Amino acid sequence: MLSFDTLKEQVADGTVDTVLVCLVDMQGRLMGKRFHAGHFVAGAWEETHCCNYLLATDLQMATPDGYESTSWERGYGDYVMKPDLATLRPVPWLEGTVMVLCDVLDHHTHKEVPHSPRAILKKQVQRLQAMGYEPMTATELEFFLFEKSFDEIRKSGYRDLEPISGVNEDYNIMQTSREEHVMRPIRNHLWNAGLPIENSKGEAETGQEELNIKYANAMNTAEFHTIAKHAIKEIAHQEGHAVTFLPKWSHDKVGSSSHVHQSLWKDGAPAFFDESDPLGMSPLMKNYMAGLLKYAPDYTAFMAPYINSYKRFMKGTFAPTRIIWSVDNRTAGYRLCGVGSKAIRVECRIPGSDMNPYLAMAGMLAAGIAGIEEGLELQEPTKGDVYQGNTGMIPNTLRDAAVTLKGSEMLRAALGDDVVDHYTRAAEVEVEDFDRVVTDYEIARGFEQV
């Protein structure tokens, strides 16, 4: 991290000349402005402004209708971007550059915009803190690395995609050595940016990588995840390669996930651990996990926010298909890790690599809080092949998940009606856009045959 006083010194001696002033958008991307560092330390550190459509666009930055917060009728006004100087950090992969994240405020009231991803997660963290708990989380980033650059792939129409390797490279040191020209600067630059990087490894497919970051409080974890994802794209580009966080870029390849590990701590100690329990699970943990399971359909749209997200949920691919929990089973939607130890935690394996970590974790925390408040009883763990059976299925499509999100009384109480309506509309926009498109699959399958 970087203090504001240190930044002023670095600006004065010419070490830093650029400040990235960023907000996190609905899709989990960094949006903002590049400030001359001299102007930033002279006054822009207090606030700047952006168009309010930045929290009401789709992936392609189109401005669909149907949002209450902004529209053509309202004229697309401003939001205030309020730099959170506690997030100030160097950006080692860009020369002379530092970054700061912003809270997004209403231009007139100067209150936080409720559907801002940072505000949504912050609200759930504060609810737990009021109960005496600190949510500790970690996310895993899986992605595919390709031979060609973003520009080359875009100009080809995203066809004939070739991963950087031709073999399944899960834990394969020899293969990942060939990719160190990309992965080494990713690890080192992010470490030097203040992210507690643990390791990278090859994942279970050709060209698939994984980056692991040490657990932290939920707000920091979301920040680490967002910055790391941004950096991976920029560093790969610098090395002449493209990456994708699309959960399922090819039907014959396994997908990319972003598992979320979570536990609650109290007074600096893990509150999920109970040494008297056969598995080491405290009653609090059982209530929390029961809430995760009961309300999983409600927040699935936050874990799987796009049409493509649902292509990943296939049997035999290590992606889950059912909302169940099991002990150290990598095919269950919820996996109990660290059994019998203070490291005990629950890993949610449903989110894909396309999730916005602020939204996904907010949904999980809200569900866990509901489980605690309702005193929910945790069912027995599922054993054996958890792909067998047809109970507790993950919603099949974004259309289904959006309907469940819209009708969620739990999330409306936890997040607010305006937030639920806003992100329901975001899901509907994705469905409507896809429904308009004639795909290559339809033409190839039916052109001559229908």
From TrEMBL:
Keywords noted in UniProt: ATP-binding, Ligase, Nitrogen fixation, Nucleotide-binding
Domain GS catalytic: 117-450
Domain of life: Bacteria
Residue stretches making up the GS beta-grasp domain: 14-109
SUPFAM superfamilies assigned to the protein according to its UniProt record, in alphabetical order: Glutamine synthetase, N-terminal domain, Glutamine synthetase/guanido kinase
Cofactor(s) of this protein: Mg(2+)
Chaperone among keywords: no
Pfam families in UniProt: Gln-synt_C
Role according to the record: Catalyzes the ATP-dependent biosynthesis of glutamine from glutamate and ammonia.
Family: Belongs to the glutamine synthetase family.
UniProt protein name: Glutamine synthetase
Organism expressing this protein natively: Parasedimentitalea denitrificans
Lineage: Bacteria, Pseudomonadati, Pseudomonadota, Alphaproteobacteria, Rhodobacterales
